[in-house]
Amino acid sequence: MRKTLAFAMGFLSAFFITFPMTGCQKKQENNDEGLLLGFSQIGSESAWRIGNTKDIEEQSVNYGVNLMIENANQKQENQIAAIRRFIAYKVDVIAFSPIVEDGWDNVLTEAKDAGIPVILVDRDISTDKEDLTTCLIGADFYNEGVMAGEYLIRKADSLGLDHVNIVEITGTENSTPMRQRQAGFADAIANDERMTVLESIDGDFLKSRGAECMRYLLDTYKDEIDVIYSHNDEMTLGALPEIESAGLVPGKDIIIISIDGGQEAIDVLKEGKINCVVECTPKLGRELMETAIKLKAGEEVDSVIHPIEQVFSDEMNPEDIAPRGY
Ligand code: GZL
User: Fold this and answer.
1) Which of 99, 101, 122 has most ligand 1 atoms within 8 Å of CB, for mutation?
2) Which tens digits make up the pLDDT trace of 267-297?
3) Domains (ranges, CATH) in the chain?
4) 196 vs 52, 228, 243, CA distance in Å?
5) Per residue in 42-75, pLDDT tens?
6) Rounded to an integer, what distance in angstroms lies between the CA atom of residue 300 and that of residue 34?
7) How far is the CA of 47 from the centre of ligand 1 (A)?
8) From 40, 44, 204, 205, mutation site for ligand 1 pocket: most ligand atoms within 8 A of C-beta
């Protein structure tokens, strides 16, 4: 028993457990009590991601769900390993935020064969197989891109611009938010002949990469740049000091459009250094817990759950923006 328990304890040491850990006995007790949910989180790359994790943990307590959460530190292989551990531990439901869309068929087939339902949180997967997942809970990233493009058209109208040169700093290549934010923005400006995208460059949703990308874009295009369209606040916040170091005033010399809507970016919007922030709420925990509880009870669930999201910009009184909570 000790050896088994030691294994169990060692096995669980990689997880942050939100119930008092007493090894396997707790699992047996939980068979009749609350739901055991295994969640693989991408990492801690942004205020958005940290806020998402915090909300999921808080909601698991609110709903009495036993949460096993593992941080993959931006590596798909860590997410795949975590899902395999959840399967081995026989959790009731698995949830994860896939860092990229491809490469999940094998591990999700293993979950399906084990009879464990899977919920996609935040991001989607790309697969030809049927029924590997039950529900996607996350933003409509395409619409976020459309809202960013529609803001730019209004801004160009208000400034009387006859041509608009855009540089795009994208999120993680092949991730759902990157693909759809790029597509929505491109479609929104497609019929506006003033708009030209000079270059799109991968910033991987990271602040450091946002700064590197901005340095390259300024060196390459210098004063040609009219607009920066950045797929998340972290990269935007990394880019701003580079713009100022080049002697340009962000929000004035260059229009800055960002996505996420974290407090730090909203504070910079209030300073006038960012012109538009499209909201992408990280607060998905309530919908996740409610969906997981329904699945454990054998109830039908919606295949897609999109939160309602808004646009914050210099078209409004930024002082009216409520505290963001992330
Ligand atoms: C969007 C989420 C993205 C955020 C980034 O739902 O996947 O990942 O926009 C985060 O800040 O890194």
Assistant:
1) 122
2) 999 999 999 999 999 999 999 999 999 999 9
3) 5-139+282-309 (3.40.50.2300), 141-280 (3.40.50.2300)
4) 34, 12, 20
5) 999 999 999 999 999 999 999 999 999 999 999 9
6) 19
7) 9
8) 205
